[in-house]
Amino acid sequence: MKFLLVFDFDHTIIDENSDTWIVKCAPERKLPNGLRNSYQPGHWTEYMGRIFVYLGDNGVKEDEMKRTMTTIPFTAGMIDLLGFIGENKQLFDCIIVSDSNTVFIDWILKAADFHKVFDEVFTNPAAFNSTGYLTVQHFHAHHCAKCPENLCKRKVLKEFLDKQLERGVSYTQIVYIGDGGNDLCPVMFLKKNDVAMPRQGYTLEKKISQLAQSLSPVQCSVLVWSSAIDIMSYLKLLIKE
């Protein structure tokens, strides 16, 4: 009996967007208007690439970026929740599927000593190049019309589950914890026995309730959370059963 916990990262594990937080490193802690307005829907990774070039051009180094990123607050109750999962790893497999990047997530989890809680992190690959600039790439290519071109979380989840099945691992239940519009695609892949946990007042919750109103509700159960303590309470019930 094993459960799979799937976490988004920004506004779910941490209480901010890691990609916009990095702007605190920029001169006067803001971006020039031309750069700020250059984002095109579905092309966030390219937009972040331009921001990293701007930071590099302005002499922002890796250690300063790391110091800034590790000050991001965790969401209310999240430290308790991740501690609880860490103590019960024999019951929970735990993955992150995020549109952030490997460098940011790695820094933040290691600084708080939570990297061992997660079995795998699926996010855009990032690295510092030879000139010391942070570069980011697309996670994968996919054919899903609903998702940004660099990442379809449903595809990630499906491929992870297939790989686990090949290893002889199947899950009693999948619990998906997220907040954003790009979390809807994987939530719609969940089955009747699974649970979606959208963060209260965020896009994912709104999109799930719109689907219910248009009489095409998601198959899985839906439990809304505002503090990660709500998630922990549910997991405690789950392992008691």
UniProtKB/TrEMBL annotation:
Keyword Ubl conjugation among UniProt keywords: no
Q: Tell me the domain of life.
A: Eukaryota
- InterPro entries per UniProt: HAD-like_sf, HAD_hydro_PyrdxlP_Pase-like, HAD_sf, Pase_PHOSPHO-typ
Show the GO MF annotations. Answer: metal ion binding; phosphatase activity
Keywords attached to this Swiss-Prot or TrEMBL record, sorted alphabetically, are: Hydrolase, Magnesium, Metal-binding
Residues that bind substrate: 19, 99
State if Nuclease is listed as a keyword: no
Cofactor needs: Mg(2+)
Query: Pfam family of this protein, just one?
Result: Put_Phosphatase
Q: Where is the active site?
A: 8 (nucleophile), 10 (proton donor)
Q: Which residues bind Mg(2+)?
A: 8, 10, 179
Question: Which SUPFAM superfamilies does this entry report, sorted A to Z?
Answer: HAD-like
Spell out the family assignment given in the record's similarity comment.
Belongs to the HAD-like hydrolase superfamily. PHOSPHO family.
- For this entry, the protein name equals PHOP2 phosphatase
